[in-house]
């Protein structure tokens, strides 16, 4: 069975970035992080919901503050009490 472009990406092999599924995944992540970046710092519940939808795993007490961007999101896994000061995901 042939590997999907997603499988190739996750295995850190060469893959087609223009694969329809990967394009859709990036678009979905962008929708989520743009909403996250426009959400008030005081709306902790909404921010938690957004990072739980965006990230693969989110520990309790974790926080992400605007301006946040990523390509896919689902391959980001953070533990408890995660708070990035400055972090860039590629």
Description:
- The structure is a single chain.
- With 90 residues, this protein is mainly alpha-helical.
- Helices cover 40% and strands 4% of the residues.
- The chain is built from 3 helices and 2 strands, in the order H-H-H-E-E.
- The chain has helices at residues 5-10, 20-38, 44-54; strands spanning 57-58, 77-78.
- A two-stranded parallel ribbon has the order 1-2.
- Helix 2 packs antiparallel against helix 3 (44-54).
- The radius of gyration is 14 Å and the shape is elongated.
- The model has no long low-confidence stretch (mean pLDDT 92).
Helix and strand arrangement:
Blueprint: H1 5-10, H2 20-38, H3 44-54, E1 57-58, E2 77-78
Parallel strand pairs: 1-2
Distinctive features:
mainly alpha; 4% strand; 3 helices; 40% helix; single chain; 90 residues; elongated; 2 strands; two-stranded parallel ribbon
* Sequence of strands across the biggest β-sheet: 1-2
Unreliable spans are none
Largest sheet composition: 2 strands, parallel
User: What Rg is obtained from the alpha carbons, in whole angstroms?
Assistant: 14 Å
Shape: elongated
**What quaternary form is this?**
single chain
Mean pLDDT comes to 92
Instruction: Give the percentage of residues in beta strands.
Output: under 5%
Summed up, the helix count is 3
Q: Count every beta strand, where a strand is a DSSP E run of 2 or more residues.
A: 2
> Approximately how much helix is present in the residues?
40-55%
- Beginning-to-end CA distance, first to last residue: 29 Å
Q: What structural class should be given to the helix and strand makeup?
A: mainly alpha
The sequence of SSEs as H and E is HHHEE
């Amino acid at each position: 069975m042939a590997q999907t472009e997603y499988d190739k990406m996750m295995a850190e092999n060469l893959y087609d970035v223009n694969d329809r599924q990967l394009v859709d995944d990036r678009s979905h992540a962008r929708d989520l992080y743009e909403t996250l970046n426009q959400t008030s710092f005081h709306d902790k519940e909404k921010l938690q919901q957004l990072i739980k939808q965006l990230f693969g795993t989110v520990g309790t007490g974790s926080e992400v503050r605007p301006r946040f961007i990523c390509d896919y999101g689902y391959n980001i896994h953070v533990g408890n009490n995660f708070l990035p000061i400055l972090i860039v995901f590629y």
